[in-house]
Task: structure prediction
Amino acid sequence: MSLLEVQDVTVRFGGIVALDGLSFDIEEGHICGLIGPNGAGKTTMFNVVSRIYQPARGSVRFRGEELLEVPAHGIASLGIARTFQNLALFPTMTLLENVMVGAHSQGRIGFGRAISRLGAARDNRRTRDNAGDLLNQLGLGALAFRAAAGLPFGTLKRLEIARALAARPKFLLMDEPAAGLPHGEVDGLAETIRGIRDQFDLTVLLVEHHMSMVMGISDRVVVMEFGRKIGDGTPAEIQNDQRVIDAYLGAPA
Result:
């Protein structure tokens, strides 16, 4: 059963066509890799699902509901959360506070009120305990009361995942989660993504340039070039698709 159905989505910025009739589905419980060269339109697609961009035409259905009719502030209440390539954390707050803000700010009250209510949230045992549990599950429990500033980049990447999970999503969009990580930490992140998918019963849309990671954890891979879909299939099918090899993957060494 498809959780997300993208049909004929087109986005234009003036004379530039960023998405050109893009269509694909994501089955519930799957990790779907969205890959392609820089400028292919991957982040634009994320921004359509997040309701940052309104397409010129097309349909995006989430659990059968037309997502393009939902305002941006209503996305979280549907069970959709997102991480960003560039970290958007609060550096002077502790890890626990960052996750607690995520539990509120991705709901109905917004970032400003979430921050202003953080003092009250400290007295909310359920919010605090849930944030602590998420940090423990992502191997960050020992750092719960440390400020985010100055911590290793890989730690902050996992913190952002924990904050996204605090909103209890069913669909998680991850925009280049391995960007900036040392090669040795990419495999660990891949295990984390697969683990949270299983543990939290998530469906994941993953934009990533680390091909070994994408091919290792994705159930399905969609390949884009110049805003169009040029490949859609299992990792094995994509790695043997001559059009995808020519456009993006290149011939194996």
Q: What stands out?
A: Residues 107-111 have pLDDT under 50 and may be disordered. The chain is about 40% helix and 25% strand. Residues 183-199 form the longest helix (17 residues).
